[in-house]
């Protein structure tokens, strides 16, 4: 290889490196699709618990089997970290730790 070929090879490598640096996306640019911010997780947790209790009660009214109710609880735990348990006929929504979040209202 002579000096001209070496110089051309070095220029090609430098030009390729320059193009790669310029074409690389900037990591400091924020995406316009950001994760939505949650206002208050306690309020959302309570609302999710109410929805979970209503869904569970509807499943019970429709005559769902124990296996179906267990599957519903698994889905609720996976999605919302909430499970519904039956305490003496009254439904209670709890978190994974067993802390009660919401109780079903008893209609008299």
Description of the molecule:
With 108 residues, the protein is α+β, with helices and mostly antiparallel strands. 53% of the residues lie in helices and 15% in strands. It is built from three helices and three strands. The chain has helices at residues 3-23, 41-61, 66-80, and strands at residues 82-87, 90-95, 100-103. It has a three-stranded antiparallel beta sheet. Helix 2 runs antiparallel to helix 3. The longest helix has 21 residues, at 3-23. It is rod-shaped, with a radius of gyration of 29 Å. The model is unreliable at 35-39 (pLDDT under 50).
Summary of the model, kept short:
The chain has 108 residues and is an alpha+beta fold. It is built from three helices and three strands, in the order αααβββ. A three-stranded antiparallel sheet has the order 1-2-3.
Distance between the termini: 97 Å
Shape: rod-shaped
Radius of gyration: 29 Å
Order of helices and strands: HHHEEE
> Could you give a short account of the major beta sheet?
3 strands, antiparallel
Which terms summarize this structure?
108 residues; 15% strand; rod-shaped; three-stranded antiparallel sheet; 3 strands
Fold blueprint:
Layout (H helix, E strand, L loop, with lengths): L2 H21 L17 H21 L4 H15 L1 E6 L2 E6 L4 E4 L5
Antiparallel strand pairs: 1-2, 2-3
Helix pairs in contact: 2-3
């Amino acid at each position: 290889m002579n000096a001209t070929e070496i110089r051309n090879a070095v220029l090609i490598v430098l030009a390729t490196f320059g193009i790669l640096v310029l074409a690389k996306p900037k990591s400091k640019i924020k995406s316009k699709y950001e994760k939505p911010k949650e206002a208050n997780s306690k309020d959302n947790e309570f609302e999710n618990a109410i929805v979970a209790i209503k869904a569970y009660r509807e499943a019970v009214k429709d005559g769902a089997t124990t296996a179906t109710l267990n599957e519903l609880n698994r889905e609720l735990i996976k999605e919302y970290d909430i499970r519904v348990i039956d305490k003496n006929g009254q439904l209670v929504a709890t978190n994974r730790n067993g802390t009660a979040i919401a109780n079903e209202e008893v209609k008299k």
